[in-house]
Amino acid sequence: MQNYIWSGKKVRLRPILSSDWEKFHQNDFDSEGARYCDIIYFPRSEEGTKAWASQQSVNAPVGDNVMLAIETLDGELVGSISTNSCDRRHGTFKYGAAIFRGHWRKGYASDAIKVLLRYYFEELRYQKVTAHVYAFNEGSIALHEQLGFVQEGRLRNMIFTKGQYFDEFVFGLTKSEYEKLT
User: Fold this and answer.
1) Which helix (H) or strand (E) holds 129?
2) What are the structural domains of the chain?
3) What domain of life does the UniProt record list for this protein's source (predicted)?
């Protein structure tokens, strides 16, 4: 799969499968990880996670908005990545990525993001991507800076967790900036 556009150096992106439910369910018990990526949700039963994974496995993209699994080149599921707010008219989109805690700091998020950016910039003609990062997520801030993203804004008191409000940073990367990095 060396020439497969959805493969990087460490990971490949693929649809979520019904059989992925167990790893996603295990990840639901990592509340601190949930804080970094999104929010802490109400508990979900195994049946609920199975139903969610089953539904994801048959979901078609809505426009260019998609949710994909991230797996290592050896086939181990390590997280997910999704796009949202895809606007073809303006050529802009947003994304979010979540790596299961046992796989942090191995380069999987960086590689998955690069695969996603390559497809959206080089195949779909998008010209800019933005990522929203919580101010307390130092790992994600460092990741986006390492990938060449520029901090474009700070939204004050946007995130409430652990009994307090936190800022949210907006990072952006244009296609021309991306091309200089590749």
Assistant:
1) strand 128-134
2) 11-181 (3.40.630.30)
3) Bacteria
Cα(100)–Cα(30) distance, rounded to whole angstroms? 9
**Token couple for 121:** 């910039």
Global pTM exceeds 0.90 = yes
Distance, in Å, from the CA atom of 174 to the CA atom of 147, rounded to the nearest integer, reads: 12
Q: Give φ, ψ of 110 to 5 degrees.
A: -55, -45
Task: Calculate the alpha carbon distances from 159 to 11, 15, 99, 142 in Å.
Answer: 30, 29, 20, 19
Q: Rounded CA gap, 63 and 78, in Å?
A: 25
Residue 150: half-sphere exposure toward Cβ, Cα within 13 Å: 9
* 3-state DSSP assignment of residue 46: helix
